[in-house]
Amino acid sequence: MIKLQALLDNNKPNQVETFTITAIIDSALSVGAGGSSGSLADKPIVRNSERNLLIPGSQIKGRVRHECEKLLRGLRWEISESPNAGRMVIRRDNAPAKFNRDEYKINGYEQTYHCLISQIFGDPVLPSRVIFDDLVCTEESENLPEILRSGVTINRRRRIAEEQKLYFLETSPANAKLRFQGEIHIQSGLTPKRPDYAKALIWAGLRQIHALGGSKSAGLGWLHWKLPNIDVDAEVWEFLARGEIK
Description:
Structural class: alpha+beta
Largest sheet: 6 strands, antiparallel
Number of domains: 1
Number of strands: 10
Number of helices: 5
Radius of gyration: 21 Å
Shape: globular
Strand content: 15-25%
């Protein structure tokens, strides 16, 4: 296993903070694994090499980024348009007026502006400084039976069930309060003279995620989080509150 700390300068300790987070599933979970075999389901649930159920870290990171974008827009910060690569990197020579501010400037990137989201999660120019591990179910796989649910494809335009479109999806057991655990690795900020808002924003984003996986409207994937306590300085909240240019 590659340790992120080993890739950094040994003369600068504590550049990466690691936190363990836990998702507790309140209903059944359906995180599909496209192309998987060995199951009667048309959409098997994703597992790791040891057959443990898991929630991919890429799904967690994408959802957290989306929630953080909503939070910052609510605070009147300008956010780049993801996932459009051409609009995620704002060149200074043709930047909108609202991007022309010190908070979007980063040393070493003199030709571009980078919004607060890009400074955490990355963009086509700027590397991400946060890594989300897969959340792996702590319950042994042999203790979890295969649960299949049937469904039928609905034609939304005609508002009827499609003919010969019966399918089966695999889920985790319902109401088993399964715990999925993994780690978040957060590298130190690229702008050390400014408050590091990354942890506060990521924690707020996680608490806005109430369901994961497929069939959320049918009640699958609903969850709550167990997160470690973090200390957030008052200057971080003051910084985030400065969103709108007046």
